[in-house]
Amino acid sequence: MPDTRRIDALVVEIGSTTTVATAFDGLAGWPESTPVLLGQGFAPTSVADGDVGIGLDSARAMLEAKLGPLAPGVTLATSSAAGGLRMTVHGLTSKMTAMAAREAALGAGAVVKYQTAGRLRDHDLREIDAVHPNLVLLAGGVEGGDTEVILHNAGRLAGLSARPIVVYAGNSVVAEEAREILESTGFRVMVTANVYPGIDELDIVPARHVIHDAFEEHITHAPGMERIGTFVSGSILPTPGAVLISAELLAAAEGDLVVVDVGGATTDIHSVTDGSPEMAAISTDPQPHAKRTVEGDLGTFVSAAIVAELLPPAERPDPLPPAVPTTAEEIAAAALLARTAAVTAMHRHAGGLAHLYTPSGRKTVARGRDLTACRLVIGTGGALTRLPDGEGMLRSALDGGAGDRLLPPADARVALDRDYVFAACGVLSTRFPAGAVVALMRASMSANAAG
């Protein structure tokens, strides 16, 4: 029997269809040692079969068939299986506290299934029950502002049939009162900083961290996921949240950037930027430094028919490609859908210029996300990294010089996460130096950088 090989870390990514096990070494000794990806193993995700461990064991077995028996110093995980992190978010006003709550949830890697502003009604409770959220995010009121609505909503949640974890991220003046109301009716409550402490002021990072903690607490008890706790010895993060953490780390080293992840069902865009000074001077909307949007109708398989409808009739692929394209025709069809999804998602993520007419004449303002300072655009996920011409797909999503969208400039550098490590790097950063994690991402991008 071969000797067991000691390595720094094993990271498992539990996707909706595929589980990936990735071995890393050279992290703990950085910068004296060079961080390296040693290998990867793949297996079908087995959560739907009632035991996540089947897929985890199979992926690790494939990895160890290549590398020999492994003894990782720590085993970490990211997951988007079992429906991902399903959340509902509730605030006082749609464009202030509810918007801030949504930004916090999406930034943490959640799927926001339902959002409300104002007082919860019977209809809202039925909608919340219908989506079976793992977490509920309760916001409302700037610091020292309104307290009545958030206390009303805390009381109304008692009418839910289930008891998801509640993250309180509203006016801190009544945080303890709200906690008492919720705990008295059987809720587990986690209190964090107000996501909207003042007018046009966002503070969503503390809420993201608390949501990650709540997710880790929830996921080990989710149906089919119970055995993950025996496999993992460190953190468990939502996969999209881990990618945003990686984007933040890389941006600190490389400058403002965008990460595009085209999947079979959805397309995620992650951006880390404060925008350009020129646009900031005319901006009307507060924006977080790090932002994620998810487009649930843009993907290459589950939502392929919707993406195809965005193309001219003569260009629509027929038949649509399968989940794993193999023939030249299937690959070409999937690539066309991936390009369309990437371009559409980038345009939706980006803000734009608007022209207002006032008594003193026309005035131009910037609304939404300003990506004009992003000089690096990276593709991750299977579609962009495995289909041909991923860099070309990304270039199609840049500013073509026409229109008022606030897109990355046409001469931005594009790169691919060739080794598919961005999600793993996000959770690795919970245990290893940021510089070591950034080195892994740079190595993954190096062979594909263009510009």
Give structural notes.
The protein has 451 residues and is α/β, with parallel strands linked by helices. The protein folds into three domains: 5-79, ATPase, nucleotide binding domain (Nucleotidyltransferase, domain 5, 2-Layer Sandwich), CATH 3.30.420; 85-219, Rossmann fold (3-Layer(aba) Sandwich), CATH 3.40.50.360; 238-446. 34% of the residues lie in helices and 24% in strands. The chain is built from 15 helices and 17 strands. Helix 4 packs parallel to helix 5, helix 8 packs across helix 14 (422-428) and helix 11 (328-349) runs parallel beside helix 13. The longest helix is centred in the C-terminal third of the chain and has 22 residues, at 328-349. The radius of gyration is 22 Å and the shape is globular. The chain starts with a strand and ends in a 5-residue tail after the last helix.
